[in-house]
């Protein structure tokens, strides 16, 4: 086991000095650093005898009039993350934007979500980016939760859980929550240190049998057994709106392809950050669209 300590990964240095971080996903330590070897081992090559059905169908429930961009970015992350099919459920007024920006992505009306049989064919669902707080987000969340299969929950869907905590009890097991610090504290209460925040995440991930992706400079992925995986990729050139929307789409793409929610979260965070790192080598800032579009090159390089 290496002698790296947890405090090195926290912006406030708040962890007790005795907490050691193990190297690699197979480490027996509670806190594990994700290594390049881990990610190479997790990623599966695409098979020669395969078709779009082999790689799953993801549904993105996102966007409203003023934040259609968030839905498009999320769908872009999903598309470039390799889902066989991506469908976006957005308000109808976003259709021209969707067809223009992402002709590969299909459309499902918001009304169609009310008929639960329309949801059966999807291998994964992501919900939240740009949904807003005015639209009846609760109805959309109920639709996503109705199947009892993992859901990727981000942004305004997390804000709704914070407002209506009774929905927490009906989150399907294996779902992936992707809060940044403010969203996390909105949901689980204010925290004064990062160490305390991580302990709450460990408790909640176990209690609700979910995966929590606590986003920051180093992102912490906490699984259902309270293990904490630390992602080291990513950089401050990525500190720009829409970056989290792409990550959400990427997690949904990987779950659609058959990765477990925990593996999907680990792989997505690492690849998303590596994409930003590769681009930032010669850029002051990288946009979320650029990060999404560079994902296939990062995935291909991992197979070498
Ligand atoms: N093109 C678009 O339409 C975009 C829409 N977006 C969507 O717009 C909605 C609202 O986004 P907002 O940016 O207003 O709300 P956020 O909840 O993302 O941010 C609210 C405030 O929290 C703070 N904050 C964010 N991340 C933090 C962190 N890691 N640590 C500490 N403080 C942090 C920021 O100062 C920010 O002003 C969301 O649904 C989001 O998905 C954004 O994703 C950006 C792109
Ligand atoms: N300074 C940074 N270092 C590493 N990663 C970063 C940094 N800033 C942002 N990111 C990454 O970008 C994403 C931002 O997500 P989020 O805060 O949800 O953005 P948004 O809501 O604007 O889309 C996270 O995956 C985070 O890890």
From TrEMBL:
**PROSITE patterns, A to Z:** YJEF_C_1, YJEF_C_2, YJEF_C_3
Task: Kindly indicate where the leader peptide sits in this chain.
Answer: none
Sorted alphabetically, the Gene Ontology BP terms of this entry are: metabolite repair; nicotinamide nucleotide metabolic process
Function recorded in the entry: Catalyzes the dehydration of the S-form of NAD(P)HX at the expense of ADP, which is converted to AMP. Together with NAD(P)HX epimerase, which catalyzes the epimerization of the S- and R-forms, the enzyme allows the repair of both epimers of NAD(P)HX, a damaged form of NAD(P)H that is a result of enzymatic or heat-dependent hydration.
Q: Where is the YjeF C-terminal domain?
A: 35-302
Binding site residues for AMP:
215-219, 244
> Is Nucleotide-binding one of the keywords UniProt gives this record?
yes
Q: What is its EC number?
A: 4.2.1.136
Query: What is the name of this protein?
Result: ADP-dependent (S)-NAD(P)H-hydrate dehydratase
Superkingdom field = Bacteria
A GO molecular-function descriptor: ADP-dependent NAD(P)H-hydrate dehydratase activity
Keywords annotated in UniProt: ATP-binding, Lyase, NAD, NADP, Nucleotide-binding
Alphabetical list of InterPro entries matching this protein: Carbohydrate_kinase_pred_CS, CARKD, Ribokinase-like
**Family in the record:** Belongs to the NnrD/CARKD family.
To which species is this protein native? Pedobacter quisquiliarum
User: Where, by residue number, does (6S)-NADPHX bind?
Assistant: 70, 130, 180, 245
Which coenzymes or cofactors are required? Answer: Mg(2+)
């Amino acid at each position: 086991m290496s002698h790296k300590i947890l405090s090195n990964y926290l912006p406030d240095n708040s962890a007790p000095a005795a907490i050691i971080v193990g190297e690699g996903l197979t480490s027996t330590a509670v806190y594990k650093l994700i290594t390049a070897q881990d990610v190479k081992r997790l990623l599966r090559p695409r098979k020669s005898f395969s078709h779009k059905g082999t790689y799953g169908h993801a549904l993105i429930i996102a966007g409203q009039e003023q934040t259609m961009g968030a839905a498009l970015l999320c769908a872009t992350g999903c598309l470039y993350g390799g889902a066989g099919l991506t469908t976006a459920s957005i308000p109808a007024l976003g259709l021209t934007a969707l067809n223009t920006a992402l002709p590969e992505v299909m459309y499902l009306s918001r009304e169609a979500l009310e008929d639960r049989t329309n949801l059966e064919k999807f291998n994964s669902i992501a919900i939240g980016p740009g949904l807003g707080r005015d639209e009846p987000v609760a109805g959309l969340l109920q639709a996503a939760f109705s199947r009892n299969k993992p859901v990727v929950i981000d942004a305004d869907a997390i804000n709704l859980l914070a407002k209506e905590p009774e929905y927490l009890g009906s989150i399907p097991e294996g779902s992936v929550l992707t809060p940044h610090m403010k969203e996390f504290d909105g949901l689980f209460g204010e925290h004064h240190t990062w160490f305390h925040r991580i302990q709450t995440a460990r408790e909640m991930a176990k209690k609700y049998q979910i995966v929590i992706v606590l986003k920051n400079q180093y992102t912490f992925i906490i699984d259902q057994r309270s293990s904490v995986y630390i992602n080291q990729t990513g950089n401050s050139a990525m500190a720009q709106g829409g970056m989290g929307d792409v990550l959400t789409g990427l997690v949904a793409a990987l779950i659609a392809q058959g990765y477990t929610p925990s593996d999907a979260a680990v792989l997505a965070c690492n690849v998303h950050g590596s994409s930003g790192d590769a681009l930032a080598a010669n850029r002051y800032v990288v946009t979320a669209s650029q990060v999404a579009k560079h994902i296939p090159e990062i995935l291909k390089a991992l197979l070498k």
